[in-house]
Specification:
This protein is 43% helix and 21% strand. The protein is built from seven helices and eight strands, in the order βαβββββααααββαα. It has helices at residues 23-36, 87-96, 100-112, 119-129, 137-150, 173-189, 192-196, and strands spanning 8-15, 42-43, 48-52, 55-64, 72-76, 81-85, 158-159, 162-166. The strands form two sheets. Strands 1, 2, 3, 4, 5 and 6 form a six-stranded mixed beta sheet that branches. Strands 7-8 form a two-stranded antiparallel sheet. The two termini are 19 Å apart.
């Protein structure tokens, strides 16, 4: 659900469950290896971004929990701890939500306003805001802004693949408040130019 203005490739580096390293060690080791290769990595929440020929590649180092399942341990640089989830389920949930257009518009808005709003958290928030709503792009985008203004800060968002993983913990109250404030300003303007330009 990326936009041409911010095209990215997500690459899951699935590490064997028998690897004798913690999720944090795997994350940090990958970062240092990419740095030694001169690729100028950037630490993101659960991924490490590199630029290859003008294309951003987000590498997600993930230690498989069990050979019989798709569950993996990921290290959250924002939270400073590892958590277990199913990355394949994340992709399926995003596709099944049928909210691709709305998510893409919100990602443009996020990038334009330089907001710290992790993509998976954003996707789950859009799905929650539009649950039961018809597919009407313009109305739905403004509905999401209303949700961000009135409900976003107080709502906990759980990972559908692991209810113990609280996705909304990826942002602190100050960052959530900033998202709410920018959504309120954008919603008051009611102009597509405020989102897309």
């Amino acid at each position: 659900m990326a936009n041409a203005s911010g095209m990215r490739i997500d690459f899951l580096a699935s590490i064997s469950p028998s690897a004798p390293f913690s999720s944090r060690e795997i994350y940090e080791s990958l970062y240092h290896s990419l740095d030694k290769m001169g690729l100028k990595p950037k630490s993101r929440n659960v991924s490490i971004a590199i630029n290859l020929g003008g294309l951003t590649v987000d590498i997600v180092p993930a230690r498989r929990d069990n050979p019989q399942t798709e569950e993996h341990w990921l290290y959250s640089a924002l939270r400073g701890k590892a958590f277990v989830t199913d990355p394949n389920q994340h992709v399926l949930d995003a596709l099944k939500s049928n909210r691709r257009d709305e998510v893409r518009v919100l990602k443009l808005w996020r990038d334009k306003n330089n907001l710290s709003f992790p993509s998976y958290y954003l996707e789950l928030t859009v799905a929650a805001a539009l649950r039961g709503k018809p597919r009407e792009l313009s109305d739905n985008v403004w509905t999401v802004f209303g949700y961000l203004e009135n409900h976003f800060v107080a709502r906990s968002v759980l990972d559908p693949a692991n209810a113990h993983n609280i996705v909304s913990d990826e942002l602190d109250i100050r960052e959530k408040a900033r998202i709410r404030t920018v959504a309120k300003v954008t919603r008051a303007a009611k102009s597509w130019q405020d989102i897309l330009s």
